Amino acid sequence: MSIKEDHRRFKEIIRGRIKKHFKKYVTHGEMIGKREKDFVKIPIPSIEIPRLKYGPKQQGGVGQGSGKPGDALDGQPGDGQGPAGNAPGQHLLEAEVSLDELADILGEQLELPRIEPKGHKNLKTEKVKYSGRGQVGPDSLRHFKASYKEALKRSIASGTYNPEEPFVVPIRRDIRYRTFKKSIKPQANAVVIYMMDVSGSMGEEQKEIVRLESFWINTWLNKNYKGIETRFIIHDAAAKEVDEETFFKTSESGGTLISSAYKLCQQIIESDYPVDEWNIYPFHFSDGDNWSGEDTRICIQLLKDFFLPNVNMFGYGQVESKYGSGQFYKDLEKEFVEDERIVLSKIENRDKLLDSIKEFLGKGR
Predict the structure, then answer these.
(1) What is the pLDDT of residues 231-255, one digit of tens each?
(2) Do 310 and 268 touch, CB atoms closer than 8 A?
(3) Across 319-344, average pLDDT
(4) Tell me, what's the pLDDT at 47?
(5) What's the predicted TM-score (pTM) here?
(6) For a Cys-Cys bond, which of 41, 56, 241, 279 suits 94, CB 3.0-4.6 Å?
(7) What are the residue ranges of helices labelled H in 159-233?
(8) Distant-in-sequence, close-in-space partners of 315: CB < 8 Å, separation ≥ 6
(9) Going by C-beta distance under 8 Å and a sequence separation of 6 or more, which residues neighbour residue 207?
């Protein structure tokens, strides 16, 4: 069996293990901390193969005539000796899996449809591919290895090549240059803007749920778009843009004005992402508390006037908190009951993550 075949079978085994325990990987964040560019490392349980160990000859013990029930085997404590163990009997193997593979598994498990980018937001990009060799070109594209090969062939053909003194000097006709061709390929640009409530009622568990959900949303969107941008906004009574690390590590405090995040999100879109060129995905996560009904009305007006006409979808995820009222979800549900451009999801705990991800991504918008 070839190495390629072995590698293929190993990948199939790993893929099967991931699918079997997929919910565990979605709801636990250990592997997210092991991201390396386009790959993550996933711990896969593996069984250690048993092996025989031979002892010295003519030694008494169990199986050799003089042993009694309860006697210890060689090198092991007998009955009643030693503390009780609490470690698992399995060892963990870390398998490297690409984010594309994870996205495929996510799509299979949740039966997610492929996203069809908005037609007027498809950009055509020019791609240069170096595909051959030529006898003319600029010095910057000179291919030294190919040039020396031509010189060597000429020397051998002309009989001037001496294996004992393999000195080859390319002449003008030996020089080869890289040639390229330009191709026009359609490319859909996309930006995901995450907004999170970091007021006093949003604790570490709530932020961890948001962290996990945003990882899987990003993984799926990256599968559908080449080159996705991500922006992060945190808010309590005021909003500000931050980097990813700050987004998930900011300590919770203060009151809540949700409209501050929506206004900042609008400014970012209007400044950096023309709506006729970008697929835009805003996601807002909160426990549903807002300072006042008036601020909620401002949010609803922003959704109607700006967001829903210009984005692919607007996602609102409400994370369960014992301190949050959850009223914002009810207000949005009442106002946008039949509008498919806004997707509402209740995330009661980690076990509901898969359901929430499917609610957000299951319409292929």
Answers:
(1) 999 999 899 999 988 887 877 677 8
(2) no
(3) 89
(4) 45
(5) 0.66
(6) 41
(7) 204-224
(8) 281, 282, 283, 284, 342, 343, 345, 360
(9) 196, 198, 248, 252
Q: Are strands 91-98 and 39-46 parallel, antiparallel or unpaired?
A: antiparallel
Query: Kind and range of the H or E element at 122?
Result: strand 122-134
Question: Nearest-CA neighbor of 135 among 180, 168, 171, 173?
Answer: 173
Which has the closest alpha carbon to 179: 139, 130, 213, 227?
130
CB atoms within 10 A of CB 314: 25
CATH of the structural domain 189-361, one choice from 3.40.50.2300, 2.60.40.10, 3.40.50.410, 3.30.70.1560: 3.40.50.410
Strand partners, 229: 191
Helix or strand (DSSP H, E) at 44 = strand 39-46
Closest to 248 (Cα-Cα) out of 221, 273, 218: 218
CA distances from 201 to 157, 189, 236, 326 (A): 82, 35, 10, 11
Instruction: Tell me what the mean pLDDT of segment 267-283 comes to.
Output: 94
| Backbone angles phi and psi of 30, in degrees to 5 | -60, -45
Distance CA 82, CA 90 (A): 21
Q: Worst-scoring range by mean pLDDT, 50-59, 141-150, 276-285, 311-320?
A: 50-59
Length of the chain: 365
Domain spans in the chain, listed from the N-terminal domain onward: 1-47+91-111, 123-184, 189-361
Number of Cα atoms under 13 Å in the Cβ half of residue 92 = 8
- Which residues, at least 6 apart from 321, have a Cβ–Cβ distance to it below 8 Å? 201, 202, 203, 206, 287
Eight-class DSSP state of 142? B
Residue identified by tokens 């598994």 is 105
On whether the CB atoms of residues 215 and 197 are closer than 8 A, the answer is no
3 state DSSP class of 230: strand
